[in-house]
Specification:
By secondary structure, this protein is of the alpha/beta class. The protein has two domains: 3-242, 2-Layer Sandwich (Nucleotidyltransferase, domain 5), CATH 3.30.420.40; 250-432 and 464-495, ATPase, nucleotide binding domain (Nucleotidyltransferase, domain 5, 2-Layer Sandwich), CATH 3.30.420.40. Helices cover 36% and strands 22% of the residues. It contains 17 helices and 22 strands. The strands form seven sheets. A seven-stranded mixed β-sheet has the order 16-17-15-14-20-21-22. The protein has a five-stranded mixed β-sheet with strand order 3-2-1-5-13, sandwiched between helices. Strands 4-7 form a two-stranded antiparallel sheet. The longest helix is centred in the C-terminal third of the chain and has 26 residues, at 370-395.
């Protein structure tokens, strides 16, 4: 019996999903883990939690699927991307907590690098802006603040990796220290045009290159799990950062195709083919996927807070008990109130890239309540997505019609949110039949590599739409609402 096990290690939870030979979901398991906020703007995970939840969910999903290790043909891994882990090469023990992609502690050093004139060089090589979001300055911070770590790293005693690398190393019993091109491209240390780690940037940040993992294709041999973990070795054959995995899962294989994933943050990727397009609108140039040694490039816009704004309503304000309640509340909201929420809890991502501003709410009245806040929270995701799409349209000069936006992730299940998204961008939004696009992407990479899943063209032809949302808002309302959002963002950044 043919199965593929997909590990989806995310920012707030870890999931494992078992797919069958037809790429249908057989079983899944999910566990949340603790978020640590040691200071304002700092976000950490305990790497042991990431490992423990990975093991537990994999074993749980396999049990639910009644699939033994011998019945799992391959494993695919997708992960939160820019999060940094440094661990002991001998013991596998981390020397510090994982510093999460949302963490802003290196803002001052990023300001220093920009003021010193390094950003143009870094962007030319990596496609990224100099921002605390990316791994490079987080790694430098650990080496600067953990006693003796830089010397140990130079001696080859410490290893660096994004979460995929850490999991591969642990699963293979330390036999493989590797990552894939999409995760490497998010470190701010990898030259996306040359396909290698940048000596220049590593020297600038004083990072010993001995720490860095080998970079492979997204579909490749990443070793096999130790026999005692799942009772038999299982080959690891597919790896991609979560947003790139979703791009693959959405079958966005042609230049001009776009997808937007709504998880903790929101991430939109536009396939630009074999050309790394240089953005004039502060978007990122990155690798969408790499197969057979050839990278396919993308423009990416990143929103730091999407689903997290709903978590804030639930956990911070206690105005909802469950995320699903937001849709019903939004429908009840007073249409005459114009409440605008700018969820800059950890700064603003693309196209603003302001690490220092913080969230704000505008338009409050005495009558504002949970319904209006829920509506404003869902609308904030639509507004931020339009910011990204407008920037992408300006950078992408392809002729012909703009493609439909393909959406996935937790918030995409909200019909209200997706309808507002279609309304505010003034274009169609397609939600696929298979919602697990991130896990599906790495499952397909792994399954294709071992020869049990179809090739790229066949996989793309099988993509199916569940619901198409089309705009229902008139143009004057659309432009008026978007103008209110831009005004609110400007005020937030000026505070």
């Amino acid at each position: 019996m043919t199965h593929i096990l997909a590990i989806d290690q995310g920012t707030t939870s870890t999931r494992a999903i078992v797919f069958d030979g037809e790429m249908a979901v057989v079983a899944s398991e999910q566990q949340e883990f603790t978020q640590h906020f040691p200071q304002s703007g700092w976000v950490e995970h305990d790497p042991r939690d990431l490992w423990d939840t990975t093991l537990a969910t994999c074993r749980g999903a396999m049990t639910r699927a009644r699939a033994t290790a011998q019945q799992i043909d391959a494993i695919g891994i997708t992960n939160q991307r820019e999060t940094v882990i440094v661990w002991d090469k001998q013991t596998g023990e981390p020397i510090y907590n994982a510093i999460v992609w949302q963490d802003r502690r290196t803002s001052d050093h990023c300001h220093f690098l920009r003021d010193a004139g390094h950003e143009a060089m870094i962007t030319a090589r990596t496609g990224l802006l100099v921002d605390p979001y990316f791994s490079g300055t987080k790694l430098k911070w650990i080496l600067d603040h953990v006693d003796g770590s830089r010397a140990r790293a130079a001696k080859g005693e410490l290893l660096f990796g994004t979460v995929d690398s850490f999991l591969i190393w642990k699963l293979t019993g330390g036999a493989v220290h590797a990552t894939d091109a999409t995760n490497a491209a998010r470190t701010m240390l990898y030259d996306i045009r040359e396909g290698r780690w940048s000596t220049t940037i590593c020297e600038l940040l004083d990072i010993p290159m001995q720490m860095l993992p080998e970079v492979k294709d997204c579909a490749a041999d990443f070793g096999s799990t130790q026999a005692d973990i799942f009772d038999a070795p299982i080959p690891i054959c597919g790896v991609a950062g979560d947003q790139q995995a979703a791009t693959v899962g959405q079958a966005c294989f042609e230049p001009g195709m776009m997808k937007s994933t709504y998880g903790t943050g929101c991430f939109a990727l536009l396939n630009t083919g074999d050309t790394p397009v240089v953005s004039q609108n502060r978007l990122l140039t990155t690798i969408a996927y790499q197969l057979d040694g050839t990278p396919t490039y993308a423009l990416e816009g990143s929103i730091f807070v999407a689903g997290a704004v709903v978590q804030w309503l639930r956990d911070g304000l206690n105005v909802i008990g469950n995320a699903s309640e937001t849709q019903a509340l939004a429908k009840q909201a007073d249409p005459h109130q114009n409440v605008v929420l700018v969820p800059a809890f950890v700064g603003l991502g693309a196209p603003y890239w302001n690490a220092d501003c913080r969230g704000a709410v505008f338009g409050l009245t005495r009558a504002t309540g949970p319904a209006e806040l829920a509506k404003a929270a869902l609308e904030s995701v639509g507004y931020q997505t339009r910011d990204l799409l407008d920037a992408m349209s300006a950078d992408w000069q392809a002729t012909g019609l703009q493609p439909t936006l393909r959406v996935d992730g937790g918030m995409s299940v909200s019909d209200w949110a997706m309808q507002f998204l279609s309304d505010i961008i003034g274009g169609p939004v397609d939600r696929p039949k298979i919602r697990e696009t991130t896990a599906l992407g790495v499952a397909w990479l792994a399954g294709m590599h071992v020869g049990i899943y179809p090739d790229q063209a066949t996989f793309a032809a099988q993509w199916a739409c569940e619901t198409e949302f089309v705009p229902k808002m008139d143009e004057d309302t659309r432009q008026g609402k978007y103008a209110s959002w831009k005004k609110a963002v400007h005020a937030t950044m000026s505070y």
